[in-house]
Amino acid sequence: MYDTLIKNIGQLILPKKGPLKGEAMKQLHVREQAALAWKNGKVAWIGDTKTASQIEAKEVIDAHGRLVTPGLVDPHTHLIFGGSREEELALKQAGVPYLEILEKGGGILSTVKATKKATEEELLKKGRFFLERIASYGVTTLEAKSGYGLDKETELKQLNVVKHLNEEGALDIIPTFLGPHAIPPEYKSDPESFLSEMIALLEEISRKDLAAFTDIFCETGVFTIEQSRRFMKASQELGFRTKIHADEIDSLGGTELAAEMGAISADHLVAASDQGIKDLASSETVAVLLPGTTFYLGKDTYAPARKMIDSGAAVALATDFNPGSCVTENLQMIMSLAALKMKMTPEEIWNAVTVNASCAIGKEETAGQLEIGSLADLVLWDVPNYKYIPYHFGTNHVNTVWKRGEKVWERGESYVFSIPQPERQS
Ligand code: NIG
Ligand code: FE
Fold first, then answer.
1. In ligand 1, which atom is closest to the CA atom of 81?
2. What is the Cα–Cα distance from 152 to 201, expressed in whole angstroms?
3. Which residues does 376 contact at the CB level (< 8 Å), separation at least 6?
4. What's the Cα-to-Cα distance from 378 to each of 42, 69, 137, 318, 426, rounded to whole Å?
5. Closest ligand 1 atom, CA of 76?
6. What is the mean pLDDT of residues 163-171?
């Protein structure tokens, strides 16, 4: 006896194990007219709708031809922060560049002030609120960074909040320590000392098991390549796998550094060089692309996803959800931007928000896939097929989200509308 059976699934997406690199990203394993059942939070049976009548389950759900996929994985968010930055919108409209706002003490530094002020309880409540919305968009696993503290107390406060939210269990949240996210004004003339302070924190974070990864913002006016290498080495010596915000605005060579250091992921990569792309392709580092950030910063040049995939790199997609450069929890919107602005195919996009995203946060064994024995993290979508989601943009197509077999979000309306079926091309 299974706990739940979903039958009449029009398309069931069963991604292959990742990381899927280059050509392999073009293949998406889709099973039509399928059914799936789970027990004790794990996928226990996958078959055809025809044979589903022999399956006994306590609850039977008729998908009426709709799409079912693994729960989405968002491998790059800045989930925990105080305040908000809507006042910066006018500066953006006036053409003030992102790095200039930061240089003047705004941007990340204004969120740092607000995060220092916020109590752990306030950050928890706010995090819970965002998480519910993230789940509503079909995400069942995500990464969350610190980086709005830039001091011991506030960085640990952020990481404790992530730990607490993860323990509450609605979604799996993988924590990343991003202490070197900006240089506090009082260290402006001595960034090396600030970096040393952040390095000194690593031991405690490791001992308390507060982060799986470390991350650094390698950018003009923030941290240099040499400083990033120093931080990554120190992290690795303590057993952390590393991530890097690389080549987001200027082409500094952070992409090459990520490959050189064997980083688990290199993120942003808008200005990655040809050499960087080559290095990525021959490395195990996953390129985490964030087209929502390019869109929100009002830029025209997106990360060279096509070149990366065509060169053989593994690409994942993420929201970069944060209060400044990408204020959205909606990974479906990111899927549309990936299609429209980076020319990724629907198959590549689905692999990028499932298996490859899970590889970017070391969760390839448990997230982003549906196999017998894998977690029953899945989404029933109110759409007829997987191509429909990047196509119909800016809205939420989720009907129901399950995490470990438990319903974590469901659309209020209970009616099943008739889904437009595309005309079949013969
Ligand atoms: O990934 N680029 C650096 N950090 C974040 C932005 C954080 C912020 O603006 O608050 C990013 O875009
Ligand atoms: Fe980021």
1. 10
2. 7
3. 4, 38, 41, 42, 43, 402, 404, 405
4. 11, 6, 12, 18, 32
5. 1
6. 95
The answer to whether residue 416 scores a pLDDT higher than 70 is no
Q: How far apart are CA 197 and CA 179, in angstroms?
A: 9
By three-state DSSP, how is residue 198 classified? Answer: helix
Q: Is 107 in the pocket of ligand 1 (CB under 6 A)?
A: yes
Q: Where are the alpha helices (DSSP H) in 288-421?
A: 291-296, 305-311, 331-342, 346-352, 355-359, 388-391
What's 53's DSSP letter?
Answer: G
Q: What is the pLDDT of residues 365-391, one digit of tens each?
A: 999 999 999 999 999 999 989 999 999
Q: Which amino acid belongs to residue 377?
A: D
Probe ligand 1: pick from 216, 243, 325, 327, max atoms within 8 Å of CB?
325
Residues 292-336: tens digit of each pLDDT: 999 999 999 999 999 999 999 999 999 999 999 999 999 999 999
Atom 3 of ligand 1, nearest CA residue: 217
Determine if ligand 1 sits within 6 Å of the CB of residue 325: yes
Query: Is the shortest distance between the CB of 324 and ligand 1 below 6 Å?
Result: yes
Say yes or no: CB of residue 321 within 6 Å of ligand 1: no
Cα–Cα distance measured from residue 132 to residue 15, given in angstroms and rounded to the nearest whole number: 25
Question: What are the beta bridge partners of residue 72?
Answer: 139
Which residues have C-beta within 8 Å of that of residue 388, sequence separation ≥ 6?
67, 381, 397
Please write the tens of the pLDDT for every residue from 50-74: 999 999 999 999 999 999 999 999 9
Phi-psi region of 57 (alpha: psi -120 to 50; beta: other; left: phi over 0): beta
Whether the CB-CB separation of 319 and 329 falls below 8 Å is answered with: yes
In sequence order, the β-bridge partners of residue 244 are 266
Task: From the CA of 323, give the closest atom in ligand 1.
Answer: 10
Strand 139-145, strand 172-177: pairing:
parallel
Please, what is the end-to-end C-alpha distance for the chain in angstroms?
41
The ligand whose atoms approach the alpha carbon of 144 most closely is 2
